[in-house]
Amino acid sequence: MSFSGLDLALAIKERRFLAPLPPWVEHMRVHEENLVEQVEVGRIVSRWTPGRQFTVPDGYVQGGLICAVADGGQGLAVTTTLETFEAWVTLDLHIRFVRPIKAGQTVTLDSRVLSKTKNTAIAETTVMLEGDRLAAVVTGGWRKSETRAVLPRDDG
Fold first, then answer.
1. Strands (E) located in 13-132
2. CA-CA distance, 10 to 51, in Å (whole number)?
3. What stretches of 41-81 adopt beta strand conformation (E)?
4. Burial label, 64 (beta-carbon count in 10 A; 0-12, 13-18, 19+)
5. Can you tell me whether residue 126 is helix, strand or coil?
6. What residues are paired with 155 via a beta bridge?
7. Contact at 8 Å (CB) between 129 and 135?
8. Which domains are delineated in the chain?
C-alpha cells in the first residue's frame, strides 16, 4: 500500500498506525503519552506528559529521552513533506537545555522542517513547558535512507 507522508502523520494524529511503530516506542509506550495535536506540511506539534519511567532518581526527565521524543517529531515533520512515504534517518541531533522537565509536567513539542532538499533536511524542535517557558531546543540533520526498507504493518 502506498501513502504520502502527510497521510501517515494525519493517521497517527487519529491514533491509526499505517506502518509499524518502532520497537522502542512500543516498549516505552511513548505513543500513549506523546499525542500529535497538529499536522501541517513540514510541521508536527505534539503534547507529551512524561511518566515517572522516564526520570532519573531526582524526578527529572532524562535528557536523552527528551531528545528521542524530539527526534520522533522531527522525523514525522520531515515525513509530511514526502509525496510517497519513504524512510529517512537522523544524521545528528543537538539539544540545548534551558530548564528541566519533571515527570507529570506537560510539554509541547513543535517540530519544523527548516530546510529540505531531495536527500537531506534540517529540522528544529522547541520543547515548551506550560506558560510559554522554553525547556529545550533540538536541531537535527536528516538524510533519505538508501538502505532502510519501510516494513508493512503486521497486525498478526
1. 34-40, 43-48, 88-97, 107-116, 120-129
2. 25
3. 43-48
4. exposed
5. strand
6. none
7. yes
8. 5-144 (3.10.129.10)
State how far the Cα of 94 lies from the Cα of 141, in Å rounded to an integer: 9
Residue 70, Cβ density class (10 Å: 0-12 exposed, 13-18 middle, ≥19 buried): buried
Phi, psi at residue 53, to the nearest 5°?
-65, -10
End-to-end CA gap in the chain: 17
Q: For position 156, what pLDDT does the model report?
A: 45
For residue 74, give the C-alpha cell. 522531527
Mean pLDDT by 10 residues, the chain (156 residues): 84 83 77 87 96 92 94 95 91 97 96 97 98 97 81 50
pLDDT of residue 151: 53
